[in-house]
Design a protein that fits this description.
OB fold (Dihydrolipoamide Acetyltransferase, E2P), 8 strands
Amino acid sequence: MPDIAADHRIPILVPDLGTEQETLRISSWLVEPGQAVVVGDRLVELLIPGITYDISATQNGELVSIVRHVDAIVSTGDVIGWLELDQS
């Protein structure tokens, strides 16, 4: 039987920044697991040599899991965390 709670989670993905030749690194998580977020809240900062890029919440909810931590090297499409959607 599927986990019903899992149906309300969405991944936080590394977007395509057009930086195939550059190293992407997580420089900072701006929220902690258990913290509520609303659309537009900054969740995490990625560092590209010379540039900082913010990933923002696309849905209201709660950060429930950080999969990739600070200083991790990441690539386009990597799941770096999970949001539990606000069902209210």
